[in-house]
Every structure is written in structure tokens, then in C-alpha cells.
Design goal:
It contains nine helices and no strands. It is mostly helical.
Length: about 180
């Protein structure tokens, strides 16, 4: 039903449906993500709408919907249209796109982030050649920050895995000593 509201011909209804879906995902993040496929599909088609206001509201709504638990899987259905959106004729829409992209890259769960990161990096690299100097600088800064953050996260994850492996080995050695005693 929510997907149909977002797919309504009336631009105001598209915006209200998108805002409602985003609010619901913000408030019920753990429970709603799995049910948002039709909404994500409808919102993706709204990224082609003639009014930049509808495109901006759609992007802002996708920011909250995609990071809801389970909705990350539906992101793959948006990549075709996101490629056009990052080159939108409206500078405001492009700014919103890169803001949403940065939000996804900081708030998304690590497994989903690793799955989609190569797409996100390509979008950010495209932002380096944008006509707007503000978008250029924002993308450059975020690429540096993201690289550092991901390096630290993956190093910490590697240390945890090494500790788990060490504890497993110690447990096996104790079991062998008990059997031989």
C-alpha cells in the first residue's frame, strides 16, 4: 500500500508517501526494512520525476529506508537510476544525492557496506568531477575519511577474529591435556 502511495501520479502524494515511509523506517528501524521492497521500487522510479522537489524528497526518504534492517538488499534495484541521479541537471538534487550516499556509507551495517561499497566509491569518484566546487570538496573529504574509518574497522575486525582463533586454539590444547591426563 505504501509503495502504491509513492507511485501515485500526484507529486504531493509521492512526497507525502516517501516522507511517511522514511519516518516509519526511522522509528521502527529493526522491524520495517524487510517490507519496503515495493516502496523502494516506487521511490526509485520517482527519481526520474520532472520536479526536482520530488526527486530531493525521494532521495531524503531513501536515506532512512535503505538503512532499515533488511532493506539494504533492495538497494541493488536502485543502482541503475542512481547513476543518472548523480548527474542530475539540478545541483540541489546532486547535493542531496551525495549527502544521502555519505549517510548510507556511515550508517549501513558492515556486511551490506562491504557488498555495495564498490558502487558507492564509483559514485564518489564521479562527484570529484562535478561542476559544483562544493560537491567536489565534499566528495574528496569524505573519501579520505571513509578510507581511514574502513581501515580502522577492518583492522579491529581482524584483531577480533585473531583473538577468537587464539581462544579456540587454547581451548583445544586444554582439551588435549585433559584427555592425556
Amino acid at each position: 500500500m505504501l509503495g502504491r502511495a509513492c507511485d501515485d501520479p500526484n507529486p504531493e502524494m509521492k512526497s507525502k508517501g516517501a516522507q511517511f515511509a522514511a519516518a516509519m523506517c526511522r522509528d521502527l528501524r529493526k522491524e520495517t526494512g524487510h517490507f519496503m521492497r515495493s516502496t523502494v521500487v516506487a521511490l526509485t522510479s520517482n527519481l526520474q520525476h520532472q520536479h526536482s522537489k520530488v526527486r530531493k524528497v525521494t532521495l531524503k526518504s531513501l536515506e532512512d529506508i535503505i538503512i532499515a534492517n533488511g532493506a539494504e538488499a533492495f538497494l541493488i534495484e536502485t543502482f541503475g537510476q542512481l547513476r543518472y541521479t548523480m548527474n542530475d541537471r539540478s545541483q540541489d538534487v546532486r547535493k542531496m544525492f551525495y549527502t544521502v550516499l555519505q549517510s548510507w556509507m556511515t550508517k549501513m551495517e558492515l556486511t551490506a557496506m562491504r557488498q555495495y561499497e564498490h558502487h558507492f566509491i564509483i559514485y564518489l569518484l564521479n562527484g570529484l568531477s562535478d561542476d559544483c566546487p562544493e560537491i567536489n570538496a565534499e566528495c574528496r573529504e569524505f573519501l579520505e575519511v571513509h578510507g581511514t574509518r574502513m581501515k580502522e574497522t577492518l583492522q579491529a575486525l581482524g584483531k577480533e577474529e585473531a583473538q577468537d582463533e587464539e581462544m579456540k586454539t587454547e581451548g583445544e590444547n586444554e582439551n588435549e591435556e585433559m584427555v592425556t591426563a
